[in-house]
Amino acid sequence: MGVKIGDKVKVHYVGKYENGEVFDSSLDKEPLEFVVGNNQVIPGFEEGIMGMEIGEKKTINVPSDKAYGPFREELVFPIEKSKLPEGITEGEFLEVHQPDGNNFIVKVSEIKDDTAYLDANHPLAGKNLIFEIELVSIEE
Fold first, then answer.
1. Which residue in the list 5, 17, 54, 77 is annotated as catalytic?
2. Does 68 participate in catalysis according to the annotation?
């Protein structure tokens, strides 16, 4: 029968960039568990496991539009360097507190003179991803 919408599944996965570099893996921890159709994982991952049988392994290629979406330039914004915590460097992540009480994570993408540029894109935005997956279990 295979995986279908509404099934609770467990999968082991290795997530890679197109150059083969691994960015995430479940192999050294518990399998990823989610309900198919509940938007708990990226659309391309969910589509890729449809119809799989327990024990089946496969590699799926997920284009950025079915992963974390395109990189959006409007989500990169400047702030005064003096507003950064002491000792922060390019490439580090910060939690930003908005006036409405919400928080979000940004990456310090560049520091130039007195200006720092913060990037609120998801770290995997704009990237095509490859997943090696193994279906561990299905519960209807």
1. 77
2. yes
- Catalytic site residue 24? yes
* Chain position carrying tokens 């914004």: 77
CATH of 73-119, picked from 3.90.76.10, 2.40.10.330, 1.10.10.10, 3.20.20.370, is 2.40.10.330
Q: Of 7, 49, 68, 138, which residue is the catalytic one?
A: 68
Structural domain spans, the chain: 8-69+124-139, 73-119
Tell whether domain 8-69+124-139 is in CATH 3.40.1670.10.
no
Query: In a structure prediction context, what are the per-residue pLDDT tens digits for the chain, which is 140 residues long?
Result: 799 999 999 999 999 999 999 999 999 999 999 999 999 999 999 999 999 999 999 999 999 999 999 999 999 999 999 999 989 999 999 998 888 988 989 999 999 999 999 999 999 999 999 999 999 999 98
In the residue annotation, 77 being an active-site residue is answered as yes
* DSSP H or E run through 137: strand 129-139
Known active-site residue 17: no
CB distance 120 to 106 below 8 Å:
yes
Whether pTM exceeds 0.85 = no
CB 119 within 8 A of CB 110: no
Residue 5 a catalytic site member: no
Whether 104 is a known active-site residue: answer: no
